[in-house]
From TrEMBL:
It comes from Limosilactobacillus reuteri (Lactobacillus reuteri). This is DUF4430 domain-containing protein. Residues 1-23 form the signal peptide. It comes from the Bacteria. Keywords: Signal.
Length: 133
């Protein structure tokens, strides 16, 4: 019976420790991203959240909505990706990035390697297989 409880205790500790480390890591990452957005004049996003293995950043509508041209929008998304990836490298994470704005919602999504999609300015179609690098 003691072995059973000991086994349960060990399994519980094994599962709890990685979860708490991951939560702490996500909190630190979110904090660094938001500090970057607030203190860096070159920051292209206004706020960031980290949930699980996904980073969601919010950008100002004026950078991505009409009259911004398609190429300008895509270039801007690449800049956002580069800024977030730089901070991720510092934390040793390889999370997915989602870019949103207030007007149209989700604008782009990319994995850590830079593959993903960008929504066109007509807000209906997506450019799949987009390379954010």
């Amino acid at each position: 019976m003691k072995k059973f409880f000991l086994t349960i205790a060990i399994l519980t500790m094994t599962l709890i420790i990685p979860v708490s480390v991951s939560a702490s890591q996500n909190s630190d990452l979110a904090s660094d991203l938001n500090n970057y957005a607030k203190t860096n004049t070159d920051a292209d996003f206004t706020k960031a959240t980290v949930k699980g293995k996904t980073i969601t950043v919010t950008v100002d509508d004026s950078y991505v909505e009409d009259p911004v041209e398609e190429l300008g929008r895509e270039s801007f998304m690449s800049d956002v990706f580069s800024q977030v990836k730089k901070i991720q490298k510092k934390h040793g994470t390889k999370y997915t990035l989602i870019v949103k704005d207030k007007k149209s919602g989700k604008l782009a999504k990319a994995n850590y390697k830079g593959s993903g999609w960008v929504r066109n300015s007509n807000d209906k179609t997506e450019i799949n297989d987009y390379d954010f690098n």
